[in-house]
Amino acid sequence: MSKPVVITCAITGSQTRKSMNPAVPITPSEQIESTHEAFEAGSTLVHVHVRNPDETSSSDPGLFAQVQEGIRRHCPGMIVQFSTGGRGRDSAERGKPLHLRPDMASLATGSVNFATVIYDNAPPLVDELAQAMLEFDVKPEIEVFDLAMLYNARDLLDRGLVKAPLHVQFVMGIKNALPAKRHLLEFLVAELHDVMPDATWVAAGVGRHQFEVAQWCAELGGHIRVGLEDGVRVSRERLAKSNADMVERAVEICAALGRAAATPEQAREMLSLKAAA
Ligand code: ZN
After folding, report:
1. How far is the CA of 259 from the centre of ligand 1 (A)?
2. What are the tens digits of pLDDT across the range 208-228?
């Protein structure tokens, strides 16, 4: 049997707006409902940003708590991952919701240019967020937007600021950062195996690259991430009807290769997370 696939659903993000696709969930109740549909479709890991009522990105622990509680109630065993990134959030605020002890949180291990801004992750901030995750027993998902970030993750391991085995996400297709190229992903995975042999991995393709990268992940033995944070279409022709619509497409890609979507128990075991309470 081929290894099951943990399908992450990035339901909201900090940029994608309802005006781009009305299916983007903004309020906590919309987010919980959208996550539940994605869970039923085969997603076992939800990546969460929260928004203020005016749709701007928020670090409000109250909103994160509400979303987490709803997901835990309606999606038994699903892995909850909070974003500590996102534009429009003060760096001092980004670690604020970690005390809520989600299963995981994203941790970008360096700075990078995006299309028009710097995604700013200075070394002291990376250390501080890693330290907070250790303190609250939150597993980081290492976000690799550029190659150096992989080695920075190894450095965090060597300094005891994160624990092995790590889970690493490669992000491809953002302007000014890594392009979406299959041979580049193959190189990144080979380098990951060299630098951190016990790490698990996933890659996210942004915009029109979303399902192309999902296909490569399925073929190369990785996990998959899809969702309205990363793009609003399932194909050039068709706008996604929902996050679940995108998860269904990911499940089809896996099935064609003889891989099944992981159950919550399998997902937790593969990512070395404790069983759900
Ligand atoms: Zn995100």
Report:
1. 25
2. 999 999 999 999 999 999 999
| 164 phi and psi angles, rounded to 5 deg | -80, 155
Distance 226 CA to ligand 1 centre (A): 11
Q: Which domain covers residue 91, as residue numbers? A: 7-270
- pTM (predicted TM-score): 0.97
- 1 CA to centre of ligand 1 in angstroms: 31
Taking each helix axis from N to C end, the angle separating 148-158 and 123-135, rounded to the nearest 10 degrees, works out to 50
User: What's the pLDDT tens digit per position in 172-197?
Assistant: 999 999 999 999 999 999 999 999 99
Residue with token string 């709803």: 70
Check which CATH number belongs to the domain holding 99 and give it: 3.20.20.70
What is the 277 CA–ligand 1 centroid distance (Å)? 25
Residue 111 has pLDDT above 80, yes or no: yes
Q: How many domains does the chain have?
A: 1
CA of 48 to the centre of ligand 1 (A): 7
Helices (H), 146-201: 148-158, 182-195
86 CA from centroid of ligand 1 (Å): 6
CA 165/CA 170 separation, integer angstroms: 16
Residue 66 lies in a domain: yes
In a domain, 1, yes or no: no
Q: Compute the distance from residue 50 Cα to the ligand 1 centre, in Å.
A: 10
Task: Give me the percent of the chain exceeding a pLDDT of 70.
Answer: 99
- 205 alpha carbon – ligand 1 mean position (Å): 12
Is 277 inside a domain boundary?
A: no
Centre of ligand 1 from the C-alpha of residue 138, in Å: 16
- Pick from 23, 34, 24: which is nearest to 67 by CA? 34
| Residue 44 within a domain | yes
